[in-house]
Amino acid sequence: MKETLEALLQEALGKIEAAEDGRALQEVRVSYLGKKGPITEVLRGMGKLSAEERPKVGQMANEVRDEIKTKLDEKEQALEDIRVAKQLEEQKLDVTMPGRPIEKGTKHPLQAVVEEVEDIFIGLGFSVAEGPEVETDYYNFEALNLPKDHPARDMQDSFYFTEELLLRTQTSPVQARTMEAHNGVGPVKVICPGRVFRRDNDDATHSHQFMQIEGLYIDHNVRMSDLRGVLDSFVKRFFGENREIRLRPSFFPFTEPSVEVDVTCALCGGKGCRVCKQSGWIEVLGAGMVHPKVLEMSGFDSNEYSGFAFGMGVERLAMLKYGIDDIRHFYTNDKRFLAQFKRV
């Protein structure tokens, strides 16, 4: 048995030395150390040995097995070192070469517009307020003078979770919540940016999801002339000093009186063209004096306080300012489109 084990050791060491790759080494490992290998056969045949020979042969068999395993591991590491050295030689890397520049990103045009509008109104003394996108029917409609049977609700076809819970159709609920938080004591002077949702057809000018920025100012003796002055200042700072505004009578349930606000067309300077449909004006937002009922529902005394509110679509502002002809560009994540706004 001892002679057999010694011969197996020398034979295995020779094959290990001759192995040139990992596959050859694996074959040696399986042949000599596997369940059907010669060393295992020797161990199984130990029952035929005398009691004196058995421990000696067992010890030698374990030593031979350990020696083969050690040489296999050493040879495997040596082959790996050779492989890595060869790879480094063939694939030289010049660490002194400059790396590829990391392309600098840019703000999304809608985010850039929101921040620009916020900066303008913060400069006018407004603060920024935010609220939940999932709203109750009360704050989204009823607190804004839109009871459940009001026909104006049809203009804001909505995404409902339950009869009393929906995705907000406007950022006006933030105004209602802000007024409630003041407990009937002014002044209140906030703008409310955020996403809103309405079931609408997706086309060049409509989307089921879009962004709004609404504003609210409540205090003693707030007048329509204050509203015009604030909006005129905003338009000149956002669109340019040469732009003018005009107010047209309109209707909104939460303001009285209500107006649509137009700005002079940038393309023709107010002379009339196909973009403004020969009128010289382009509608940009809606506004008006806060309805007394809205003040009262939020805890303000309408005989003591008055205020104005306005709302504008962020996508519409961006489209008018940058000459974008399709609202869907904002949501397709096309890098060719977004890369144009790096300097904005």
Summarize this structure as a short list of keywords or feature phrases.
344 residues; alpha+beta; BirA Bifunctional Protein, domain 2; 2 domains; 7-stranded mixed sheet; 3-stranded antiparallel sheet; 11 helices; 40% helix; 20% strand; elongated
Characterize the structure shown.
The protein is of the alpha+beta class and 344 residues long. The chain folds into two domains: 2-90; 109-341, Bira Bifunctional Protein, Domain 2 (BirA Bifunctional Protein, domain 2). It is 40% helix and 20% strand. The protein has eleven helices and ten strands. The chain has a seven-stranded mixed β-sheet with strand order 1-5-6-10-9-8-7, with helices on both faces. A three-stranded antiparallel β-sheet has the order 2-4-3. Helix 1 (2-18) runs antiparallel to helix 2. The radius of gyration is 40 Å and the shape is elongated. The termini are far apart. The mean pLDDT is 86.
